[in-house]
Amino acid sequence: MAVVSWKEILLLTGLVVGCYWNSLSCGFVFDDVSAILDNKDLRPSTPVRNLFLNDFWGTPMAEERSHKSYRPLTVLTFRLNYLFSELSAASYHLLNVVLHAVVCVLFLRVCRSFLDKTSSLVAALLFAVHPIHTEAVTGVVGRAELLSSIFLLAAFLAYTKSTGADQSIVWAPIALTVVLVAAATLCKEQGITVVGICCVHEVFVAQGFTLPMLLDTLRQVLQGKDGFPYAVLQTLLKLIVLVISTLLLVIIRVQVIQSQLPVFTRFDNPAAVSPTPSRQLTFNYLLPVNAWLLLNPSELCCDWTMGTIPLVESLLDLRNLATLVFYTFLGLLAYHSLRYRHSSAKTVIMALSLIVLPFVPASNLFFPVGFVVAERVLYVPSMGFCVLVAHGFKIVSHLKKISWLMIGVLLTTHAVKTFNRNWDWESEYTLFTSALKVNKNNAKLWNNVGHALENQSNYAKALQYFLQATRVQPDDIGAHMNVGRTYKNLNKSKEAEDAYLVAKSLMPQVIPGKKYATRVAPNHLNVYINLANLIRANDSRLEEADQLYRQAISMRPDFKQAYISRGELLLKMNKLTEARDAYLRALELDRTNADLWYNLAIVNIEMKDPSEALKNFNHALELNPRHKLALFNSALLMQESGDLNVSSQV
Prior knowledge:
single chain, elongated, 65% helix
C-alpha cells in the first residue's frame, strides 16, 4: 500500500482550509443550539459519567423523549471545547475543520489500497471540496460524522494488516479493528458499518474471489466433492471473529437504548406513517434523491422534513422512473464488480460498499429514522462516490488534457460552492432563509426563520413567517403555537388565544391505555401551558386555566413544566396545600432545579412554616449559589425569625 507523502498531506490540508476558513465566523445554528448551548453535559459541573448515560442532546437515555442517539465520545470533544473556550463558536468550528482534514488524509490512504496513486489523490481532493460536506463540517453537530469517519477509516486500515506475509492471520490488527469499530460507533451509530466494508474487502479484494467463484466453491462443498480451501477457511475465521464482535456491540447498543426506538412525529418523516405502497415507493425514491445531491450539489437545504419531498402515492408517479434508473445503474455496477476479478471490478465493489453500507442505517428501508433526507449522513457514502469519479477519471486518463481539464473544473466549482455555502451557516436567519430559496413547502423552515426574527425581537416580521407556516402546513400544531406566542408578544391577547385554541383542536384525543407520546411530539403539550398562562391573567378564568394544566398532566404524568405552572397558579388561588403537592411532584421529576426549591419555599412561607422554607431556600442555594431571590428571601426570613446562628452559617 503506497504511503501518503507530506506534499499530499499539505495539499489536502491547504485545500480544506481554503474551502472552510470562513466557517470560523459562523455561530451555533439549528441543531447546534440543542447539542451545544442547551446541553448541560458540556459543563464542568456535570459528572463525566453522565455523558455515558445521556443521549447526544443531554437527555437521559431512559426518558421517552430521548432521541436514543448515543454518541458519548462526540459529546466528550464538545466538552473539551467548552473547557478551553466555553461557548466561543470559532473553536468548535476550527476543530471540525481540522477533523475534516484528518479524514481526507485517511481517505487518501484507504484509496491507495485499491486505486493507483493519481486516481486516489483525485478521489481525496474531490472529497475535500465536495459541497455536500458543509453540513457535516460547518455545522458543529456534524462532528459526529467526522469523528466516526476517522475511526471508521482507521479500523479499515487496521484490518488490511491482518494478513501476514505467509498468508497467516495476524490477530493484533483484528483486535485493534474491533476497538476502533467500537470507538466509531460511540461517535455515531453508522460507524459499525465498517465491519461490512472490511468483509467486502477481504473477500473480493484481498482474496480476489468473485461471486461465481464463491457459488462454485459452495456447490462443490455441499456436493461433497471437496472441502473448503485453506484460504477460504482462513478468511471465514477472520470474518466470523469480526462479525461476532460486531454482534456483541449491537447487543450492547440495543441495551443502551433499552430496546426502544425513539419517538418521531409524522412531520419529521411523513412517509414513515404512510400506508402501503406510498411508504415503500417514497422511501425507495429517496435513494435517487440522495444520489442526485452527490451528483449535483447545487441546491442544498439544511432541513428536508415535512412537505419538502411530496409522497410518492402511486405507481404511475413519474418519479418512480428515477427510482428504476437508480436501481438499474446500481445493479449494473454490482454485476460488473461481483462477476470479474480485474482491478476495475475491485475498485467498483469497494466504491459500492462505501456508498451503500454506511447509508443503510439512514435509508429508512429497514426502520424509520427522524428525517427524510439529511445531507450530513452522506459524508461517508460520498467517499464511495468520489472513488467512482476518480475511477472514471482513470478510464479516460488517456485523454490527458481533457480529463485533467474536467477534473480541474469540477474541483474548482465544488470548492467555490462549498466556500459560498459556508456563509449560509453564519446565523440561523441566513441558514433558514437560504433553505427557503430551495424549498418553500416545508413549514418548519418558515417557522425557523420566524424563530430567528423572534430572537431579534422583530415580532411583527416573525408573525408573517409563522402565519405562512400555518398556510403551508395547516395541521402543524407548532406553527399555530408560534402564532399564538407572537401575538402575545405583540400584546394581542384575543388573537393569541384564538391561535392557541386552533393548535389545541389539532391535538389528538387521549386514547385510554395508549401512551400519548407515541402519537405526538411532547413539546406540543406546551399548547396547554401557553393557553393557560395566557388566560390566567384574567382572575375570573383561573379555574379554566387550572383545568388546562390538569389536562396536560393527565396526558403526560411526567410533564414537569405543567406541575410548575400549576403550582404557581394554585399559589395565586391561595390553594397552598395543592400548590405544595404540585411542586413536590415536580421535584420528584427534577431535584436539580433551583427555581423549584425556591418556589416550594415561597409556598412554605405562605403556609407559615419558616423552618421548612429556610431548608428549601438552602436547597436552591446549594444548586445555584447565585440565586438572587433565594439569597434575598432566605436572609429576610432569617432576619425576621432572629436566627442569627443560621444567618452566620449562610
